[in-house]
Structure formats: C-alpha cells, structure tokens
Amino acid sequence: MDLWTWIIAAVIGVVIWRVSIYFLRMLSTPPDEVDPEDISETLQHYRCSVCGAEVTMTMANNIEVSNPRH
Q1: For the segment 26-51, what is each residue's pLDDT rounded down to a tens digit?
Q2: What percent of the chain shows pLDDT beyond 70?
Q3: How far is Cα 68 from Cα 54, in angstroms, rounded to an integer?
Q4: C-beta pairs of 58-67 under 8 Å, 24+ apart in sequence
Q5: Mean pLDDT of the chain
Q6: Are strands 39-47 and 54-61 parallel, antiparallel or unpaired?
Q7: Closest to 65 measured CA to CA, from 36, 37, 44
Q8: Distance of CA 7 to CAs 18, 20, 21, Å?
Q9: Residues 30, 68, 66, 52: what is their CA dihedral angle, to the nearest 10 degrees?
Q10: b/e map of 31-57 (b: 16 or more CB within 10 Å)?
C-alpha cells in the first residue's frame, strides 16, 4: 500500500472518532431543568386508537401539549 492510502485511512479514522465523541457528549448531557413556574395543572385524557391504551395527564408545561405517541 502506498502513502496516500495510509493518509486517507488516518483521516477517515479521525473523522469517525471525532463524530463519535461529539455524539457521546451530546447524549451524556442532561436536559435543562424545568422551571416549576412553567408547569400547570391540567386534566387531559388520551386514548390510543391502535392499542387502546389510556393516559390521563394531570401536569403539563405551559407550552402547547401534543398527544402522546408510542
């Protein structure tokens, strides 16, 4: 094998390593804390049309709440 093959292999290896480290750091960072003032009481009922599971939500963020999904 010639020198260019080794250089290309090393560059590809470094890129894969850097991308892997980036994703591991991203996954290991905990999400931001929820401000207790942003949480309000609610009473919303959901029923899955596929499996029939039912959920009653009693607390939610003040942001727009979407239906829970599988």
Answers
A1: 999 887 887 888 788 888 888 888 88
A2: 87
A3: 10
A4: 61/34, 62/38, 63/38
A5: 85
A6: antiparallel
A7: 44
A8: 17, 20, 21
A9: -170
A10: eeeeeeeeeeeeeeeeeeeeeeeeeee
- The tokens for 32 are 């931001």
Query: And the tokens for 51?
Result: 């499996």
Q: Using an 8 Å Cβ cutoff, are 25 and 17 in contact?
A: no
Position 45, amino acid: H
Q: Which amino acid is at 49?
A: S
